[in-house]
Amino acid sequence: MAESEKNKLELVQTNATDQTSSGEKLTQQETLQEVDLENHQAFKGDDSDGKVHWTIRKLLAATFLAMLYTGSQIPLYFAGATLSFIAKDIGQDLFGKRYIALFGALLLCTGCAVLGSAHSLAQVLAGMAMAGAGAGIGELTGLAGLAETVPVKQRGYSLAILTAFVLPWCPYVLYAELFSTHSTWRWGAWISLIFNGVTGIGLLLTYFPQAHVRAEGLSWQAVVKRIDFVGGGLSIAGLLLFLIALQAGGYSHPWTSAYVLCTLLIGLALICVWVLWEAKFARYPMIPPQLFMGQRVVSLGYAVAFVAGMNFFSLLNFWPLTIASVYDPIPVKIGLRGISVGLATASTLST
């Protein structure tokens, strides 16, 4: 192979043609031209390869992306550690890239505000639902955004630092016991609101990633048509009904009651319909099958994440309740017993 062929890709062009329901043909092109493979100072469109010229703004953007990831965890930490205080105060038992990042931070702040001002179970659930939606967006955006900001060879170190941002919050049981005993459990939501508010403002001022071109040449109507709304609705409704049945069964309703059986069976049926829809009928499925074809590591990765998530949420919510019920209700002692589990949950996040 000639030396020029080794060092340059003269022209690589891919065409993707699609057609809308109105018959209009949509063509998308991506062109890569004159790339010197031996040039180690080269830039990619998202600054994720080659040499990155760090500026104060870029350093702050990377910091706030790490804070966005951490801020996504804080509401869950404090909510799990203050369940008994929330139940006592409210009087109900509770056992039973830029714009996306900003939207996630906004949802987190809104959810924390609703949770911090809650006076009923419905408000608590609404606040946690909004904060949970923002947390899902923020956690993924923080990881992906920081990975795209730094060079590939430094990505491992950078994501390790991102995860380390959680460490100051590992004694969350101690914090929650102290402010819940001496003031109010609502400080958990307010601290989360302050942290995510600062993070959102920081992202607004410093985070300006270069846009990807996947939707270039497509109108917003064509992009919307590629969203699998049917699959999303089926999966959300099915999982929601299934989880409601598991929460109510044997607690607020008998397992043999019509309430539990209907929600359980309808939820399972909707999940089965969702699997069938994604496999056979969805034109643009939520989970592309190509993601798993010939890549066993993807399936294994999802399996590990699923099991780790079970451990993460059970420890996060039930361990504070256990130590508060079994041992003497002394805030500092309860908080100290919770530190080890806080570090364990932080290690779970690193997976």
Rg on CA atoms, Å: 24 Å
What proportion of the residues form beta strands (DSSP E)?
A: 5-15%
Structural class: mainly alpha
Number of strands: 2
Measured between the Cα atoms of the first and last residue, the distance is 42 Å
Residues in helices, as a percent range: 55-70%
Work out the helix count. Answer: 14
Q: What is the helix/strand order?
A: HEEHHHHHHHHHHHHH
Shape verdict: globular
Query: Which regions have little confidence, pLDDT < 50, spanning 5+ residues?
Result: 1-18, 26-37, 39-43, 90-96
Largest sheet: 2 strands, antiparallel
Which sequence of strands runs across the widest sheet? 1-2
Give the overall pLDDT as a whole number. Answer: 74
Secondary-structure blueprint:
Layout (H helix, E strand, L loop, with lengths): L2 H5 E12 L5 E12 L19 H16 L2 H8 L1 H8 L7 H19 L4 H29 L5 H10 L7 H11 L4 H20 L13 H6 L3 H20 L9 H24 L14 H31 L4 H19 L2
Helix pairs in contact: 2-6, 2-7, 2-9, 3-9, 3-13, 5-6, 5-9, 6-7, 8-14, 11-12, 13-14
